[in-house]
Design brief:
TMEM14_sf, mainly alpha
Length: 88
């Protein structure tokens, strides 16, 4: 069975990186968004092929939760860190 939620999450992360680049000119947002989005998509692909293979998807998810929660706590801004933390 396909992990459509995982793919949607990966797409959202990658799209967020692209929007961060377009809005603020942040190359680091672009690189991080595309890197984490690609890793999340690969993790979703692995979950789709073998339902017991959730390690990579879980690692990406927890890492983004920790990083974005920390950024939300420091800045108090809901966009984008609060939204990503809530999604995860």
């Amino acid at each position: 069975m396909k992990d459509y939620i995982g793919y949607a999450y990966a797409f959202t992360i990658g799209l967020g990186g692209v929007f961060g680049f377009l809005k603020a000119g942040s190359t680091s947002s672009l690189v991080a968004g595309l890197t984490f989005g690609s890793l999340a998509a690969y993790g979703a692909h692995r979950v789709s092929n073998n339902s017991k293979n959730v390690g990579l998807a879980l690692i990406v998810s927890v890492l983004l939760l920790v990083v974005m929660s920390s950024r939300f706590y420091k800045s108090g801004k809901v966009m984008p860190s609060g939204v990503v933390a809530i999604l995860r």
